[in-house]
Amino acid sequence: MKLIVKKEFDGRSFIAYCENVPGIYVQAPNRDLLDKRLKNALALIKHFCEERNQPFPIGKDKPIFNLRIKFNTLPTNKLLELFKKENYHIEYSDHESVVLMNSSFPFNHIHLPVTEHLSPIIVRKLFGSNNVIYVGKNYLKLRKTAP
Q: Where do the H-state alpha helices sit in the chain?
């Protein structure tokens, strides 16, 4: 299992995901808590797979949404609204994380952190790099394109 750990550009949080286990994303303010949350996320997905006699998911992450998104902050609860429209439902939720399952494809699980400021790294994984515009404070300058 290949784990990817990144520090968010603003230094506020650490992000982790498994490159060969799709749909597991965690976020924490420090590395120790990140490791704990990643272990919990993997255990949750393993539990749900065993409960349904499904194989543990392996493979590469692919974007979930075929939408363009422009955001400054994105809380998990707003993202959950989009998941519901894509036929996902909440399988498990606590104060740190939420596990979603696709109703049409029950092999598709997504684990997300519960936060008011979801990392742009996670948002790019969910929407695809080409579909995400992160608008940081005072960084946005719009210009009209030439006709």
A: 31-51, 76-85, 120-127
